[in-house]
Amino acid sequence: MKKRTKIVATLGPASSDKKTLRRMVEAGLNVVRLNMSHGTHEEHRRRVELVRSVESELKTPLPILVDLCGPKIRIGKLQKEPLFLHRGDTVILTTGKPQKGKITVNYPNLHKEVKKGEAILLADGAFRLRVKEVRGRDIVCEVLVGGPLTSHKGVNLPHSKLSVPALTEKDREDVKFAVEVGADFIALSFVRTASDVLELKELLKSLNSTVPVIAKIEKPEAVKNVDEILKVADGLMVARGDLGVELPIEKVPVIQKQLIRKANEAGKPVITATQMLKSMVDLPVPTRAEVTDVANAVLDGTDALMLSEETAVGKYPVKVVKTMAKVAREAEKIYPYKRYMELPAQTLQDSLAKSACNLSREVKVKAIIPFTRSGATAIAVAKYRPPVPIYAVTHDRETFRRLNLVWGVEPLLTVPPDTTDKVIAQSVGLAASRGIVKKGDKVIVLAGAPTGVPGTTNLLKVVTVN
């Protein structure tokens, strides 16, 4: 059986040529990520064309996830760098004009929203400052943890309640670009509440788009509000980078498990991201701890594992995908399949999917074949983690691509059938023509009547291939 956990990889200078991307797909890549924090629209447009070309050549779905920058607060250009900050030093951050001896910050309201005694972290938490006082647009801080600081580093405020918008002007332009080039997913950064996700969905609606939204959980507020966020988002990303800065780092592993579990219960795909095989940016072999981290994320129940700088700028973009795929496949040998049968069924579709998965354990079947237009039936089957393959048959090309993010689902593209009997015949026939099943094999087919209408799955049938 193929690996069931999917791999998302970021394209960048190290992986933006056809030969490398082809080899990454052959090594186990399932979803391509475009990071809008780096690169121009023109560069990303070329990457989209590259992805579609490779998808066509390899005859495999290759969805594109556009990851928005979000309202990331950063310091500006330093007058002299590196700027050495020492413990006990006084340093001034300013939202005003650049001045000698002050560090500019790109968030204009920061001076209004921080309070005396609050922490300000720089460069992913490598530097720690404490606010002593606010004087006009100047924030006077004491250095608690210092070092050599360079320009444009990120700023985190774990204890401050900020009124930054969910979508910046750049994000809005990037969303328009994503819709224009036919992106399959959009990831929203620094989500705090469900209303942040709804704001993006309203923008997409105004653009006549239904692109699924992945909510990135990287702030304490989002962890607290995750149940409400899951009701409106189409999936989650456990973004451990900023999460480990905004929260005590020792809490991240447990929060990861909790977030994955909640996404599993909601039947929404979840991606685990950040520093999974980071040492492979420079080295051909990962650390033992990284391998264990990847395996644990698989066993936690993540739908997908994500590579960032490892494939964007790393020296071994193909090897890192191959390594991650091997680790995932090995971990899946002890996958806790039975645990997922305890998940509740919340809809008729869930109940049928759960019944199909139960049946696959009791009857010797080769596969579960959901016929789906929107992808919802296949996602419902994946929620219960059956031990047999899930071959999702669809006539919708967008669904065909998007399902490649979902745990265990292998999408197959067909032509629209007009009767339920044809749905079953086409689905089984397509699986047989691909060599997936053979004469005499039993499969479970899920379908609906009337055909082609989303949300009408109401049929479960065990079929013997003839």
TrEMBL record:
Enzyme class: transferase
Presence of keyword Kinase: yes
Pfam families: PK (PF00224), PK_C (PF02887)
Chain ranges of the Pyruvate kinase C-terminal domain: 350-463
Domain Pyruvate kinase barrel: start-end pairs: 3-321
Enzyme Commission code(s) on record: 2.7.1.40
Reactions catalysed, as given in the entry: pyruvate + ATP = phosphoenolpyruvate + ADP + H(+)
PROSITE patterns: PYRUVATE_KINASE (PS00110)
Nucleotidyltransferase listed as a keyword: no
Recorded metabolic or biological pathway in which this protein acts: Carbohydrate degradation; glycolysis; pyruvate from D-glyceraldehyde 3-phosphate: step 5/5
Cofactor(s) the record lists: K(+); Mg(2+)
InterPro entries: Pyr_Knase (IPR001697), Pyrv/PenolPyrv_kinase-like_dom (IPR015813), Pyrv_kinase-like_dom_sf (IPR040442), Pyrv_Knase-like_insert_dom_sf (IPR011037), Pyrv_Knase_AS (IPR018209), Pyrv_Knase_brl (IPR015793), Pyrv_Knase_C (IPR015795), Pyrv_Knase_C_sf (IPR036918)
Keywords: ATP-binding, Glycolysis, Kinase, Magnesium, Metal-binding, Nucleotide-binding, Pyruvate, Transferase
One GO MF term: ATP binding
Protein family: Belongs to the pyruvate kinase family.
Family matches, as NCBIfam families: PRK05826.1, PRK06354.1, pyruv_kin
Protein name: Pyruvate kinase
Lineage start: Bacteria, Pseudomonadati, Aquificota, Aquificia, Desulfurobacteriales
